[in-house]
Amino acid sequence: AQRVTQPEKLLSVFKGAPVELKCNYSYSGSPELFWYVQYSRQRLQLLLRHISRESIKGFTADLNKGETSFHLKKPFAQEEDSAMYYCALRSFQKLVFGTGTRLLVSP
Amino acid sequence: GAVVSQHPSRVICKSGTSVKIECRSLDFQATTMFWYRQFPKKSLMLMATSNEGSKATYEQGVEKDKFLINHASLTLSTLTVTSAHPEDSSFYICSFQGGFDNEQFFGPGTRLTVL
Q: Are the beta carbons of A44 and B44 separated by less than 8 Å?
């Protein structure tokens, strides 16, 4: 069965510190993985997808099939990065979400 | 990205009544859309997948007679929670699928409280 695990419910860092939000997945096929972000009082929106290998707002994520991981990283966190982050796996057009990690960046 | 609206944003109802939630795509048409449910401090759980003009496909454990989905057009879908009970209290989120990569565009959600 498909499953996405985000082990940290809360990650608190200071501004300028590096950030890594962990995501592990379980999937029998070739996965499509995404990171979604939800800022305070806003809707869920796509941050990045593994297939495009892009960097959005300084965030990157690399798919590691050996470790079945898709961790989200940013070298220098900003206060405006504070939000809820969800890792998701797409299977047959359906998205399976992790439980989310709240990132809190303090000044 | 595309804009998806939901109405109402918040609703409180009495136990036993029915509540309808509308989901509209404002600037694009989509044949496929999804309804999710989110409990406090929990993840989004897919309830059903809906294709315009056909019956919705419900996920395991979701009662199709309780959560009625009508995908009336390429820009409108409704979710009706029938005979609501307090345990149906939750945050309901819709999404439309579109774009070159079949990206999902999410609505802002509807908070349902059943007394």
A: yes
